[in-house]
Design goal:
Layout: H1 3-10, H2 17-52, H3 57-77, H4 81-98, H5 105-119, H6 125-147, E1 151-152, E2 155-156, H7 158-161, H8 166-216, H9 226-243, E3 246-254, H10 257-264, H11 266-283, E4 289-294, E5 297-305, H12 312-323, E6 326-328, E7 331-333, E8 337-344, H13 351-367, E9 373-375, H14 378-399, E10 403-412, E11 418-429, E12 433-435, H15 441-447, H16 449-470, E13 477-481, H17 484-487, H18 492-503, E14 510-514, H19 516-520, H20 523-535, E15 539-545, H21 552-557, E16 562-565, H22 567-571, H23 582-593, E17 597-601, H24 606-614, E18 619-621, E19 629-630, H25 631-641
Parallel strand pairs: 8-9, 11-13, 13-14, 14-15, 15-16, 16-17, 17-18
Antiparallel strand pairs: 1-2, 3-5, 3-8, 4-5, 6-7, 10-11, 10-18, 10-19, 11-12
Helix pairs in contact: 2-3, 2-4, 2-8, 3-4, 4-5, 4-6, 5-6, 5-8, 6-8, 10-11, 11-12, 15-16, 16-18, 18-20
């Protein structure tokens, strides 16, 4: 056996700090067990034998003293190594001084071994070696007294020691040491096993705690998650009902957060969400709740109030918090948020409804310009239900072919000829009649139905161009509107390419109208798609120019063919207008400078048309010439206008 093996054999492991508590509890429990055993041993081994053998009253009295000492020591030293050492001494004294009076040497030795084994309950080497030393000292002392013929209590020492020679004492000592070493090794294994078991328990406990925390908290911000939030809300409902109180559910959504992820990266976006979470936690009260339920959406519960007006200052404080500059990974950001508010029990007593109502109110805040809050109302609820009904009905209407295109002519101002038209979608409901687009287009965009509807509009526009060409109107352009949501769809280019290819029309007769918002979002992707569409030969028109974030860079870098002046500028033209419409005049001049065709929409009066003509605007559309009309009436209008004769297809 190598030196290292021997060293490991006799090296006792130190109980680490994480296991101290468990071992201390074990020692306390073991102390109680050993004391019970001591008392039983005293009663059985000395009291009973003292009655049977009157000469052994000394054993009973001595055993009682040992028991009393241990009971008193327990009060002061319980759970300590001192107590364990005292118990070791006591166990051996019972074995060696009293029990041996009725056993032979072999039986006594086995009892000593059993006592040592019992002491292994402590998982500590100290009481075992103390007991072994006590045994050896006992034999040595009593043999010396015996050889010296010393008497105790008027009796020879042999009475207490079963006289034997020193050779037996030495042999007995060797046995005791060997037994103590074996039992000590067992104790070592017990300690190692106990430590490893405790380590495993701690790991499992830690893992359970981690899993429990993860299941109840958002992994990014550490805020309560949706499940945790709903659990706390149920408690709040019970509290509000008991004390006739209210609480408010605030639904927060960061404005334009997606732009931060797209431009600066998700790492900056995640860091921002963490910063927002910390800030929100710092400004709410202790009994309020802030949770993250996904993406850039947060929920704040303002708890325990009676007057709704009391929460408005808190909401204003939250809005102001976002207005301050945020330094996120050396990026200085400006933020805002939209907040929807629902009140328990005023708006609903059902948690899911409260959350839904707060969400609805938040979207109302967004539609009204963002960076504000909105309370849920019954009117808002009715509007939402109406929109849900419309969204569901649109799918039925599509399959029932209730959608159709109307066409509003585009007029060349100088010649008065129809050079094209804008295709505008209408919903001819089987019960409600004609439904204008402003009643359903925004719902279609919010629900994603616009992708299906928009594809149909493109295909139907191309089919209309085909029918016009077959009827002899080979130079009439038709444009259709393409929304921002469609540009987010990777299939837009394929939809246009397939429609043109399958119909066999000249792509130059098709135009798509886009708004400035299309160019603001997904700038690089949008530019790439527009260039591909332009390469097909499709005409590209910027609609509602001047109402958004107009930029010359868009006009220079994007493949734009024409501008449409928004109706709001045309409405400003009065009967006595001279040259004061600076913005309108500038847009017309800008288009001329960049060699872009300029179309004014919303022309309803002759003086408006004349003003535009005098400023160099080439084309217009509006009620002055014609409102949007079905295809059949558009064909009749073309026939009257003689648009097929002499109209240059490249006018627009």
């Amino acid at each position: 056996m190598s030196h290292t093996t021997l060293e490991n054999l006799f090296r006792f492991p130190k109980v680490p700090e994480f296991a101290q508590k468990n071992f201390t509890e074990h020692f306390l429990h073991a102390d109680k067990v050993m004391l019970v055993l001591i008392v039983m041993q005293w009663v059985i081994a000395t009291f009973i034998t003292s009655i049977s053998y009157g000469t052994y009253l000394y054993g009973f009295v001595g055993g009682g003293l040992i028991t009393l000492v241990l009971l008193l020591a327990y009060r002061t030293f319980k759970g300590t190594q001192v107590m364990r050492a005292l118990v070791g001494v006591g166990m051996m004294l019972f074995s060696l001084i009293y029990i041996q009076q009725h056993l032979g040497r072999i039986e006594m030795h086995f009892h000593v071994f059993i006592a040592l084994a019992i002491l292994s309950l402590y998982k500590d080497i100290v009481p075992i070696f103390v007991a072994a030393i006590t045994t050896i000292l006992h034999h040595g002392v009593f043999n010396f007294l015996q050889l010296s013929e010393v008497s105790l209590f008027g009796m020879p020492v042999m009475v207490f020691n079963y006289g034997c020679g020193m050779d037996i004492v030495i042999l007995h000592g060797i046995f005791v040491v060997a037994e103590a070493l074996v039992i000590g090794y067992i104790v070592k294994l017990q300690i190692e096993y106990g430590v490893e078991l405790n380590r495993s328990e701690n790991q499992v406990l830690g893992l359970n705690e981690e899993l429990s925390f993860t299941s109840l908290h958002d992994s990014l911000t550490g805020l309560p998650n949706r499940h945790n939030l709903y659990t706390q809300l149920r408690l709040m409902v019970a509290n509000a009902n008991r004390y006739d109180r209210k609480f408010a559910v605030l639904f927060l959504d960061l404005d334009h957060f997606k732009n931060i992820n797209d431009t600066l990266g998700h790492n900056v976006g995640d860091a921002l969400l963490k910063a927002v979470a910390r800030k929100l936690k710092s400004i709410i009260r202790e009994n309020d709740i802030v949770a993250r339920i996904g993406g850039d959406e947060f929920i704040i519960i303002l708890n325990d109030f009676t007057d709704t007006g009391a929460i408005e200052p808190v909401i204003s404080k939250i809005l102001d918090m976002f207005h301050k500059e945020w330094n996120i990974q050396n990026h200085f950001l400006r933020l805002s948020t939209s907040i929807g508010v629902a009140i328990y029990p005023d708006d609903s007593k059902e948690i899911n409804e409260l959350m839904k109502y707060a969400d609805i109110a938040m979207y109302k805040a967004k539609t009204e310009g963002r960076d504000q809050f909105s309370f849920f109302t019954a009117t808002l609820n009715a509007k939402v239900h109406e929109e849900v009904d419309i969204a569901n009905d649109m799918h039925r209407a599509f399959n029932a072919n209730e959608f159709e295109l109307y066409y509003q002519p585009k007029i060349h101002i100088e010649s008065g000829k129809i050079i094209g038209a804008e295709a505008l979608i209408r919903w001819n409901h089987y019960e409600k009649g004609l439904i204008p687009p402003d009643h359903f287009i925004h719902i279609a965009e919010n629900t994603g139905f616009i992708l299906k509807l928009g594809k149909w509009v493109i295909e139907e526009t191309v089919r209309a161009i085909k029918r016009l060409s077959e009827s002899g109107y080979e130079d009439i352009h038709i444009s259709c509107n393409v929304s921002t949501r469609q540009f987010q769809n990777i299939n837009l280019y394929a939809d246009i390419e397939n429609a043109v290819h399958d119909s066999g029309i000249d792509a130059k007769l098709l135009a798509i109208e886009i708004t400035e918002s299309v160019m603001l979002e997904y700038l690089e992707v949008t530019l790439e798609v527009l260039k591909k569409i332009k390469n097909l030969g499709v005409h590209i028109c910027m609609d509602d120019f001047g109402t958004g974030y107009s930029s010359l860079s868009y006009l220079r870098h994007f493949p734009i063919d024409s501008l449409k002046i928004d109706k709001s500028f045309v409405d400003d033209i009065t009967h006595n207008s001279t040259n004061e419409h600076i913005l309108l005049n500038t847009i017309i001049a800008m288009g001329q400078t960049l060699n872009l065709k300029v179309v004014a929409e919303g022309v309803e009066e002759m003086y408006q048309m004349e003003y535009l003509r005098d400023r160099g605007c080439e084309f217009y559309q509006g009620y002055y010439f014609s409102k949007p009309i079905p295809e059949k009436f558009f064909f009749d209008l073309l026939l009257k206008n003689c648009a097929s004769s002499g109209t240059d297809r490249d006018l627009i």
